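User: I'm new to structure prediction. If I give you an amino acid sequence, what do you actually give back? Let's try with this one:
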Amino acid sequence: MDKPNAPHGPGDAAGGARRLRELLGPSVRLDAGTRALYSSDASNYRVPPVAVVRAESAAHAVDTVAHCHRLGLSVVARGAGTSVAGNAIGPGVVLDLTALDAVAEIDPERRTATVGAGTVQARLQREAAPHGLLLGPDPSTADRCTIGGMIGNNACGAHAVAWGNTRDNVVSARLLLADGRQVTADQHGTSDAELNTRLRQTADAHLAVLRTEYGRFPRQASGYALDALLPERGFDVMSSLVGSEGTLALVLDATVRLVPGPAARALAVLGFPDMPSAADATPALVALGPLAVEGMDRRLVEVVVRRKGAAAVPALPRGAGWLLVETGGASLAEAEHAARAVLAASGAVDGQVVTDPGRIAALWRIRTDGVGLAGRTPGGADAWPGWEDAAVPPERLGAYLRDLDALLGQHHYDGLLYGHFGDGCVHGRFDFGLRDEGGAARMRAFLEDAADLVAAHGGSMSGEHGDGRARGELLARMYSPAALGAAAAVKAVWDPGTLLNPGVLVDPAPLDADLRVRPQLPVVTGAFAYPHDSGDLTRAVHRCVGVGKCRADLTTSGGAMCPSYLATGEERHSTRGRARLLQEMIRGDLVDGGWADPAVHEALDLCLSCKACSSDCPAGVDMATYKAEVLHQRYRRRLRPVTHYSLGWLPRTAGLATRLAGVSNALLGNRWVGALVKRLGGIDGRRGLPRFARRTFRASFRDARDARDARDARADRADRADRDARADRDARADRADRGPRPSRPRVLLWVDSFTQSFSPEVGTAAVRVLEQAGYAVELTGRQVCCGLTWISTGQLDGARRQLRRTYTALEPAVADGVPIVGLEPSCTSVLRRDGVELLPDDPRARRVADLTVTLAELLSRTPGWSPPDLSGVRTVAQPHCHQRAVMGWRADEELLRTAGADVTAVGGCCGLAGNFGVERGHYDVSVAVARTALLPALETAERTGPVLADGFSCRTQIDDLAAGAGAVHLAQLLASALDASDGRAVKDGDDG
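Assistant: Good question. You get back a string of structure tokens that encode the predicted 3D arrangement of the chain. For your 992 residues, that looks like this:
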């Protein structure tokens, strides 16, 4: 292999990067924003690269590495960037291989698949499923991790106990060497004879340590798998490369082994007194041949309940530690029988067998979201990786967990534990206090003791995440100098210039160097209270630990995060990418423009403020809030973008325009006037302008109330005349029959600006439904606004003023404990959450939040009420993102099911998202978001009724992009069913 030029120092590296851009063009990104995006992965570490290249093809990757070799620039390959150990970052060129995502071939007969390095594991599973096949290794990040990354880390996942780790399932790969040459590797060597010879010579020189220190148990992932090079192992070069963390060669594509998937699955849920007791029971259960044996701590479940509510956790057996043991079979009966055998043999204090797919999915979701949920300890402290992946032989797991608990107590650390107990692998995150002075030193002391502990139990510091920067320095506590020398010799064969992922595994960087979080980070107080982050925006944005769930397509499971990333595929448009830029903005040494930094605003520009991340992100990142904060700080007391006025002040202008609705609509409907308004208002020319209601909802409500009062007055006059004409006894009996009207429970209908000025028919329908349910409907004395559009455009001082007016108007109802029913989900979510965070010292905010409900929530708790018959309705629902994130859609779903409707809820965002899809420059992304899930659902669904969409923006998007689909609010659907029922009753009476 040719020797490279000498590696560049920091100054020379920048020059080399500029030369690389001259050679390869704009695909080489040198800007601070992109470098910041790729400076971190899901680990504790931050190493800004000198350049980022997103390979457009394998040939592009080859050219990049070849030029880097000649320029002496180091290279780090990157997939989804979900590395928890810091092995997807580096100081040279970060080569993003996610575009190499072709599934080139699936061979059902050989049970193999050939895929690009950037292929997402879940995509391969979808394409293999029609053949009854699957890839065995399935890490919790399977919906976004790439095959190349899995090979780099030797990923395992829950089902490795049945189907092995990635090393067991890779047949061959096309490799890119450090000098730009390509070779293939398989289980018998490589296509390069000289390389084979040198590797054999190196293995022969270290036979003793390869046989005694490597390959002791399946989860020994720390270091290289040098035992695979032994003669008795058949010189399996491919296996030796799996888990090498991109330090020996880069994978361009690979052929992987597939296995038949079971026809049916069941789950035995076993309760134990504690996690060590669960671990003690594991080896006997593994002997029964299950598909997975996973451990889960009581406190992890408690975190889920606090974050997502009790409904998110199915009923669990008694215990403080649980095993989830999955079984399979050719039929459900066979899988269930196997699960009952597990339960009988477990010795658990309590247990249950679950066969319902929904309950099984909910239980697995707790486990798969563990990495994000564990980002805060039960006490609320920040928790970090670093010792999140240790593994011991399964028969030692119970003893190891007891010793680990004692060690954590000695170091005064806390955290949540869970893991792949069937393989002896334990995950956890602990409150290392990295923002505290001396925090890094205390972490180092713990990690050194923890490494000694796991070595004493015959274990490995890494079970599947790799060592990376977190544990590379600790390898000397697990391996002898001779074993480490063998690893260095193999590294020298593959990468003599140490250009591939330097600082990892061989000649590792110190474990406390390059930490992303440090004591010097400032406390940033903002306009929002950040109640769960100690009032600190810095802590809030560091909720993002980089697990990258925002890169996954969650729409099939009802999620919506992150719509802009799904539309563009750009890291900067993911929740993680934006959080990284905000972290760097606060840090200030790479992204150094403060609140006005262009990279920050470019990334936030395509954030839809949908709030999906606040519920879908396991770490609870709320990018809509952070975006509003940044806009507030950037433009406070400054001239703002025009849309902040034209759309941010829409409730104000709508109130004026509806006074002369006919004139307003005529003007805006004029081709030239409408075009001018769009141009001046920053509105995309392809968008239609909404029509103002000729009669506002309040006016219609007054009309209806006046008509009802007139009817009551006429009835009273008739009553008096009747009394004069009849005998006293008959008059008294008549009055007793009519009686005084029973006192109806009061409810206050919150009249949002959209219902008031654009969709009064929604309000009218809601009144019809509420009155039929027995409520006396009230409105506030005057029209007020929750401030939603001020919040979404970052005008937070104005939003506070709007909210204070709202709270004043609501005071009479709040004082009497009257429920407040919201119709527009985004406005309802402001009353439920944003108001409390913007005005934390105003006690009215919390009282209003506690009283605010959706229509479905109120109806579902109304005694004696039952919904009208909707059994003939079959349609699609687009739950509003704010409702899904803040209030939830469960009450709506249950109401519709009770009414007999067949409604399919669409995951994802509609794409309009309030002002977002209306603004100039956002139309194409808005449509692309709609095409992710909504439009395909509308095109394929068999519907007998209109689309259900409570959000005004959702209905507008559907009307704009799916002509004729028709979209209605839940209130309209219920009211029309009531009207139809009344019509049938009248007809039946006539027929009688």
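You can read the tokens as a compact description of the fold. Here is one thing that stands out. The chain is about 45% helix and 10% strand.
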